[in-house]
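chain below, 321 aa
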Amino acid sequence: MLISAVVYRDGHRVAEIDPPDIHRYLAQPGNLVWVALRDPDPATLEQMQAQFDLHPLAVEDARNGHQRPKIEDYGDSLFAVLHVIEPVADELRIGEVAIFAGGNYVLTVRSHAEKGFQEVRARCEREPELLRSGAGYVLYALIDAVVDRYFPILDLLESEIEAIEEKLFADSSPRANIEALYRLKNRLMTVRHAVAPLLESVSNLSGARVPPLCAALKEYFRDIYDHLQRLNQATESIRDSVATATSVNLSMIALQESETMKRLAAYAALIAVPTLIAGIYGMNFAHMPELGWKYGYAGALGLMAILDGYLFVRLRRSRWL
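prediction:
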């Protein structure tokens, strides 16, 4: 459950530490303690709450999970909840990462997510001059990494909607297209629910009233805000494409039904002509023309064939058959 607990000084890694010693390193000026947890149990969270003096409401949110993406200001610390989205087969698995950031510490709690943030730690350690900014830069790097992971997922959704659009005009099942569009819409809403709430929260970290923890990094958080704007616009564009594709698919279904009805009407007309002739001469009247004609039967059949042939040609030219 404990992935790492590392202390930094002046932007450089000093040592890995044990959880019971965290409060001692926090008491030393110039230190930055960065602890990463994965799916911790309540006892571990209580230990971290005691070591970092975390706000109980933030700890409760991290313990319960299933939170809306947000960034909350607790005065001398910030608490952020981000959705981590991972593609698994044809579905999107939703995890969470809760981030506690204070003056000289960062605590991340990852839940229901496979991929960690080792690359974020490596990035921060490669940039000691920025890591000297403290917990604010680590918070930026973590949020930036989560947001950047949304772009490949949107690329997959864009490729999927393009593939479905190609099937709309092919000989594919309209029902299958509708089901594929509905599944795509559900996955798109998963991304939208992760992106949209962060727009306002991140904007508060780059606007006029910035928390002291992030005051020196306004430009960096503004860059994340720009990325979120792009993601939000992309989700809106894909959603419009899904709505348009659904409308086109329904129109194609109506068109197919219309073509089917036209064919049925054409075949009904071809059957109606001989039925009419046979019905007339099947009436039980004693005095009907040509009843005693030697070639009457063949003539009736020939007349049926000629009329049906004429109708068939006309209907074929009209694209009813």
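The CA atoms of residues 101 and 139 lie 7 Å apart. Strands lie at 2-9, 12-16, 31-38, 70-73, 78-88, 91-102, 105-111.
thats it, cya
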